[in-house]
Design a protein that fits this description.
The complex is a heterodimer of chains A (123) and B (107). With 123 residues, chain A is mostly beta strands. Chain A is built from no helices and 11 strands. Helix content of chain A is 0%, strand content 50%. Classes of the chains: A mainly beta (123), B mainly beta (107).
Chain lengths: 123, 107
């Protein structure tokens, strides 16, 4: 059974940093691309970033490009999202999602989702 | 950015068919996917590649796509189907996008 468990969320001041983690189990981690998707309070879903199964390809939404960095540790089966220069508009529940294949982008889709971790950016 | 357009809300009585539309310029060449999100829970994939149903999803959920419109149909909607539904697809360059979401009310 695929399990994705996010952690690392919390309250942070504007301009601050936070690192989210997603522990994966139940599948061969390195065989699948992984994404972060967020949802602001009362709002819809917004894709944030994707990383290929090998970690060699990464893509970002324009709203986070240059501030967020996605990475993965296949020896530990953990996905990360380093978030810097945080803004109030980054406040959201952040979900990690297992993609349907190994490539980042293209015709992949989000097959399984974690339960999310809440990030609040406020002074 | 690529826009996928959904109605904000759809309301049906129990046992009626619920249809949720999603329009996007790239849908003639790109698959549509549908996610169900119940209150306080993570999204769940209910339809992939326009019309395929993942294992464990009830048969009353179906999908179709024609031209620039994809449609999620719930035949005989039940109270437990009340949720927000999001379509998802990519533009011609592979950039991902979600629709704004449709709140389905069954009462």
């Amino acid at each position: 059974e695929v399990q994705l468990l996010e952690s690392g969320g919390g309250l942070v001041q504007p301009g601050g940093s936070l690192r989210l983690s997603c522990a994966a189990s139940g599948f061969t981690f390195s065989n699948y691309a992984m994404s972060w998707v967020r949802q602001a309070p009362g709002e819809g879903l917004e894709w944030v970033s994707v990383i290929s199964g090998s970690g060699g390809s990464t893509y970002y939404a324009d709203s986070v490009k240059g501030r967020f960095t996605i990475s993965r540790d296949s020896s530990k089966n953990i996905l990360y999202l380093q978030m810097n220069s945080l803004r109030a508009e980054d406040t959201a529940v952040y979900y990690c999602a297992k993609e349907s294949g190994i490539a980042a982008g293209g015709n992949e889709y989000f097959q399984h989702w974690g339960q999310g971790t809440l990030v609040i950016v406020s002074s | 950015s690529y826009e996928l357009t959904q109605p904000p809300s759809v309301s049906v009585s129990p046992g009626q068919a619920a249809r949720i539309a999603c329009s996007g310029d790239a849908l003639p060449k790109k698959y549509a996917y549908w996610y169900q999100q119940k209150s306080g829970q993570a999204p769940v994939l209910v339809i992939y590649e326009d019309s395929k149903r993942p294992s464990g999803i009830p048969e009353r959920f179906s999908g179709s796509s024609s031209g620039t419109m994809a449609t999620l149909t719930i035949s005989g909607a039940q109270v437990e189907d009340e949720a927000d539904y999001y379509c998802y697809s990519t533009d011609s360059s592979g950039n991902p996008s979600f629709g704004g979401g449709t709140k389905l009310t069954v009462l």
